[in-house]
Design a protein that fits this description.
This protein is of the alpha/beta class. Helices cover 47% and strands 21% of the residues. The strands form 2 sheets. A 5-stranded antiparallel sheet has the order 2-1-5-4-3, sandwiched between helices. The chain is rod-shaped and about 130 Å long.
């Protein structure tokens, strides 16, 4: 607020002078209004920035020509830059040059950003996973959201989600399954006089059992297709031609009673030594003539 007091001794303000003074006062008033609007805008920007900085994902707002309008602190941490550098220096070419220096596959990442932000080409995926090599090695999932104003696109929001932990856990699972599967199949293949046929799903296993009539079936209770191994043993018990085939259950869960009630000949609780599995199979088939085939899920 401003208060202007004008005084003159011995002479009144003329009407013309009063109009001039009123115009000057209005200009001061407009200047104060603009200053108040600027302060409010600045306050709102600060609130918005604080909200963005509280988000765990990296946020980058790109203009239609690819310039960086705004970023949050997580983005700066992930990509090894400061906010001033990102906002003032990152036109689209400078940003791409930065990605070239800090990512493992920029030739796959940059076309995705061009497609979602600049409309150059079609994005083949809704999101993309890429590897950051610096400042810290991480795995990032990137996806884009277009922003509209009055039904017209005015910018693109890029969201960078750090999935390093999930990625590493998934890799460990894959390596574990691969290692265990190999370690358990290898001794079976070496059992003299037998051939091993691994299958991943319940339906594949049932089809093969009907077709091959194996000497024994080693059954995991959790299969790759999400079906339960119980489906296989129940289907075999319902078929008079298959119910005599011995079944050895391999599971991480303690459900021996149900398994033996359904006709299983053996039950192995994970983890166990591969020799234990070989012995259980040989024991199960000793009372049957050996036709030389054993079916085993490859997800054991």
């Amino acid at each position: 607020m401003a208060c202007i007091i004008l005084a003159r001794i011995d002479r009144r303000f003329s009407e013309h002078e009063q109009h001039i003074l009123i115009g000057m006062a209005k200009q001061v008033s407009l200047a104060l209004d603009k200053l108040a609007m600027f302060e409010e805008t600045k306050r709102q920007r600060q609130i918005t920035q604080e909200m963005l900085d509280s988000v765990q994902e990296g946020i980058q707002l790109l203009s239609l020509n690819g310039g960086t309008i705004q970023v949050n602190s997580t983005f700066c941490e992930l990509l090894g830059c400061n906010r001033e550098q990102a906002v003032s220096d990152f036109d689209i070419e400078a940003f791409f040059a930065h990605l070239q220096s800090c990512t493992a596959e920029p030739n796959r990442l940059i076309p995705y950003i061009k497609a979602v932000a600049l409309g150059e080409g079609d994005a083949q995926e809704d999101s993309i996973v890429f590897e950051l090599t610096s400042p810290v090695k991480r795995y990032i999932q990137l996806y884009a959201e277009p922003l509209y104003r009055n039904q017209r696109k005015w910018s693109t929001l890029l969201v960078y989600r750090d999935i390093t932990k999930e990625y590493e856990i998934d890799q460990m699972k894959s390596e574990f399954v691969s290692t265990v599967s190999h370690e358990l199949r290898t001794p079976l293949a070496s059992v003299l006089g037998f051939a091993v046929y691994p299958f991943s799903t319940a339906q594949e296993a049932l089809d093969a059992i009907y077709r091959l009539r194996p000497d024994a079936v080693v059954l995991d209770l959790i299969l790759q297709d999400g079906e339960s191994g119980w489906k296989v043993i129940e289907a075999m018990q319902e078929n008079p031609e298959l119910k005599t085939i011995p079944i050895v259950i391999s599971s991480a869960f303690e459900e021996k009673k149900k398994a033996f009630d359904l006709g299983a000949k053996g039950y192995l609780l994970k983890p166990y030594h591969p020799d234990t599995l070989s012995k259980a199979i040989l024991l199960a088939v000793t009372s049957h003539e050996s036709a030389g085939q054993i079916l085993i899920p490859d997800q054991l």
